[in-house]
Amino acid sequence: MSICLKCRKRKGKRPCPALGGSLCNLCCGLLREKEIHCPPSCRFLSRHRPYQEKRILEKKAGRVPAFPGSAEDILRDPRMAWLAFHIEAALAAFAEARPSWTDKDAVLAIEYAKDKVGQGRSLLVVPGEERKPKDDAGEAVFRNVENCRHERKIVISPVPEFYKKEEKLACLERVAQSIRSAPGGIEGRAFVQGLVDRFRKAGNKAGGDNKIITLR
What we know:
This protein is 49% helix and 6% strand.
């Protein structure tokens, strides 16, 4: 039996189609969809994905930032509300295009974006493998967060303000908590459908002096 490609200590009991070799059970679990761009065909990915998603949702659910109704709610800050709007815009686009897309999918997309913001680097992609993101919605949220700038109106010209990593992470978690608090639980579509309806309404009123309002 071959040695694990990663740790070079334990036996490689799990063939990895992405790396073209074998990993030990521990390294497979640690690297899966974090440092390895796992193909959907991997049997270990499909076998453990439901468990991993459950762990992600349970682990993150306890981290609650200042919440609705609180004077400390970060969405009271126009800068943070503007960033939240861009996060919600990405979620609304996916929810509108995919009727089966749920609030749970939205939370997982946000957690994916949070990981990328926190790491500041992309997942490893094996040379020759198709460069396709493993979570399209998460990539869209991440791009919106990274590209978002808040413009302050100055006498001479608008000055764009960049967001700090801590602000991005706090705002992503704030939107995730709004999703988790939606009626019906995250297995439904209450939150994302609300986003779709709101953005459709805003689109129908395009051209007017609309005030951007994020969901609280």
